[in-house]
Amino acid sequence: MTQNTLAIVVLAAGQGTRMRSRLPKVLHPVAGRPLVGHVLTTASRLGADHIEVVVRHERDQVVAALSDAYPGTVFVDQDDVPGTGRAVEVALDAIPGFDGDVLILSGDCPLADVDTLTAFVAEHRSTGAAATLMTAIVDDPTGYGRVIRDAAGDVDRIVEQKDATDDEAAVREINAGMYVFRAAALREYLPTVGVDNAQGEKYLTDVPGLLRLAGDRVAASVVSDVTVTFGVNDRAQLALVGRLLNERIVRRWQLEGVTIVDPATTWIDDDAKLAADVTILPHTQILGASVIAAGATVGPDTTLVDCEIGEDAVVKRTDANLAVIGAGATVGPFSFLRPGTVLGANGKIGAYVETKNARIGEGSKVPHLSYVGDATIGRGVNLGASTITANYDDVNKHRTEIEDEVHTGSHTVLVAPVRLGAGAKTGAGAVVRKDVPAGALAMSVAPQRNIEGWVEKNRAGTGAAEAASRAHDAADKAGDGAQEEDR
């Protein structure tokens, strides 16, 4: 046996019926990754010679979801023989000649971390056992396999819940579903495991008993933190595991110098990166591969998905996806940044602004109540309230080009494709359909026309008509009084 070689087998073939979902259980997301993705991320950091994922239920969907994200992973198909024992058996068949240790993990247990698993493998190797089980002591062991020890305190066997006697069911030491075996022991005994049990499955947990009968030692490693053993079988457990994982992530960033005002309402995905002196305010989600630079403040009530936030930027009450916000820029409140938004340094996207596929230059401002889509905006630009880039002609999208130091009046509509030259301006309410030369003022001016008596004639009986009539009566009386004074 080559003592320092390691193969990792991840069990991901189960149907997960208690999830009541069209999505395979192991693909349900927590902290920005599928459940099995967390297991594979941890596995990739353990220095294994082989990493295998055993699949069966919705295998094509599982393989498609994991192949690109976890290169080097080998997917092994389980046949019609059910059970964890058969899953490990086909995994071993895929690495003929391997004679090291085999670490077996569950694809629905994302909380087992690198330190725990490294110590687990090291303990197995130090004892010289043929197999080592990870176990935990719990108050309520319902649903778990029980670890039955002999009079000397060694592991004798594992009994599944449905096969346990009353005395065995009362045991509080549970099998966590993670194991290290010598590959040779698995190759020898897995073929002898039958399916004579309540589930009609080939149990991996039968192997320790067979090893004991053959005189081999089976060790148990009791974890101090029972949460690392938590698996997911239903939506309630999914939420619990998600919360525990998020607590770990939040604490890790706090220890790295990030101020997180309210950890209970802050959610951070595992791939996000935060620099020291970032401040996260309550009710904020930092999702995907978002990156936040030093000194930035994000929140409250903000969701960032795959965004880049520059140094000392402020983003509050904002929903942003695939956006880049420059150093010293401000965004919000109540802003919606769609993919392709790039806000330059010291720029501003203000209240009730929506942007999409828009590059906004350094120091430029879109202060409030505007839509900017498919646009390129230069430096020092100020868009007046309710400026709209009308980018869609009912068939195609078109771009708006705004050069440096352009200022638009309130309620300007820029009908793309259109270009505003450097330093150009628009009047309030302008509808700009043609390019505006540099330094020009674009206006949509029509003479104002007042139609006297229109409301009283056309809206008789309304409050407006009555108010207008009173105003006219008052004006008439004032006019009569002035005439009397003239006499």
Topology:
Layout: E1 6-12, E2 29-30, E3 33-34, H1 35-44, E4 50-55, H2 59-66, E5 74-77, H3 84-93, E6 101-106, H4 114-127, E7 131-137, E8 146-149, E9 155-159, H5 166-169, E10 173-182, H6 183-189, H7 206-213, E11 218-222, H8 235-255, E12 259-260, E13 266-268, E14 273-274, E15 279-280, E16 284-287, E17 291-292, E18 297-298, E19 302-305, E20 308-309, E21 314-315, E22 318-321, E23 324-325, E24 330-331, E25 335-337, E26 342-343, E27 348-351, E28 354-360, E29 365-368, E30 371-377, E31 388-390, E32 400-402, E33 413-415, E34 418-420, E35 425-426, E36 431-432, E37 441-442, H9 454-458, H10 463-486
Parallel strand pairs: 1-4, 1-6, 4-5, 7-11, 12-15, 13-16, 14-17, 15-18, 16-19, 17-20, 18-21, 19-22, 20-23, 21-24, 22-25, 23-26, 24-27, 25-28, 26-28, 27-29, 28-30, 30-32, 31-33, 32-34, 33-36, 35-37
Antiparallel strand pairs: 2-3, 6-10, 7-10, 8-9
Explain what this protein looks like in three dimensions:
The protein folds into two domains: 224 residues, Alpha-Beta Complex (Spore Coat Polysaccharide Biosynthesis Protein SpsA, Chain A), CATH 3.90.550; 194 residues, UDP N-Acetylglucosamine Acyltransferase, domain 1. The chain is built from ten helices and 37 strands. Strand 8 and strand 9 form a beta hairpin. The strands form seven sheets. Strands 13, 14, 16, 17, 19, 20, 22, 23, 25, 26, 28, 30, 32 and 34 form a 14-stranded parallel sheet that branches. Strands 5-4-1-6-10-7-11 form a seven-stranded mixed sheet, sandwiched between helices. The chain has a seven-stranded parallel sheet with strand order 12-15-18-21-24-27-29, covered by helices on one side. The chain is elongated, with a radius of gyration of 34 Å. By secondary structure, it is α/β, with parallel strands linked by helices. The chain starts with 5 loop residues before the first strand and ends with a helix. It is 23% helix and 28% strand.
